[in-house]
Amino acid sequence: MSKYNVTIGLEMHCEVSETKSKVFSSAKNGYSDTPNTFVRPLDMGFPGTLPVVNKEAVRMSLMMSEILNCRQPEYMYFERKNYYYPDMPKNYQITQNPPEDCVGMGGYIDIIRDDGSSFRVDIDNIHLEEDAARMTHLYDTSVIDYNRAGVPLLELVTGPCIHSSDDAVSFLEYIRAIYQYCGISEADSKKGQIRCDVNVSISEDDTLGTKVEVKNVNSFSGVHDAIQYEIRRQSELKDAGRYDEVEQETRRWDEESGTTIHMRSKVDAIDYKYFVEPNIPKYKISKEWLEEIHKSIPELPYERKDKYMSTYGLSDYDAGILIKDINIAEYFEKCLSLGVDAKTAANWITGNILGYIYKNEISINDLFITPERLNIILSSMKEGKISSKQAKELFFLTLEREEEPDHIMKVEGIEQISDDGAITTVITEVLEENKKQIEEYKNGKTNMFDYFVGQVMKRTRGQANPVKVKEVLTDELSKR
After folding, report:
1. What is this structure's pTM?
2. Rounded to 5 degrees, what are φ and ψ at 391?
């Protein structure tokens, strides 16, 4: 924990992936491993091409603005942000210029921590713009993919109001969940759909210190580690009395070394020479459309969390884990629709399933064990056909072999013995072979009961129903 006052501001960039076309061109808005396939002349900056606004991208932007309690503009318009770089072939970006009339201004959102406490994040603005092309720098050359050029991009800028790396990540995780729940974006960092700039400053009092910006951090774990590193780096400089070395600058996060690296000094804001985009007419945002958008906001993550706790009796922790990713929440709800007990489903998802997908770095949508297959395993356990230990064994065998769980149960003979007669036969054999231990049990050595249970389970290779074993064993011992 730093002895200094830490202040963090975030700039979160999220691609709007759920529109059919790009924000100003008719090119397909999609992810492809094949470069330069989703491209139109406008994306390449060819002369004579004119932008056309994607109404659905604007609608999604206004929905996000409403959720963030922002003020919406009376008129929507765009501006040109001029800069010269290979990833922007027109040599300008069509965007909005805060604090002017961007899609959302002056909002806030309350975030709930894992321990149940909450904090408020001030939203300076959220604005809609076109994304740049993707550049890849190789050893002796650079290549460019224009598939991303013109993809609708929402940039959300917070105020300098966050004070720890954990809170920063909690905020980003919840905003990502909102994007997913509202069908605005997959918000998949592996596809480059989310990127963050992080501003960190430290001071000895409540004033803001010198701001250091860390550009284009591509994962939430990277955001956490970059903030921690910057707090440590700046604190060490101040502790050594080297205050002048904490300068306003732009750095980048290097995952390999776990450090931030100086890119350039940033004393003044860059002059991008904004001016109103002349090819997109200003248009009025009607109150009727805003009301329609507001009514279309779906159930949000915290609302679903409250439902899981009040309706299904889940703990705050389990409900919080389930709602972080809409795919996990939908997996859980599919289990419920199949008749799986809510607490049992939650325990298996937050335990075995999430442990497996995180370890193997896959989505729950790619997991071989669908809710239907999980239901087969859990129903077999509930009906007493298999024990909880066998259920876990069957779970991992199903994943390993990618075969149906009921087929594996037949082939491997994974079934719990619950028949009284079969269990009595095994218990009788065990007791006949352990007469000395029976005497010790009769003489008050009660822990011998567990010994007998263990012998029965060993003989049945763990397939005997332990509840039945204890019932029959108690009865048989009373006869001797």
Report:
1. 0.85
2. -60, -40
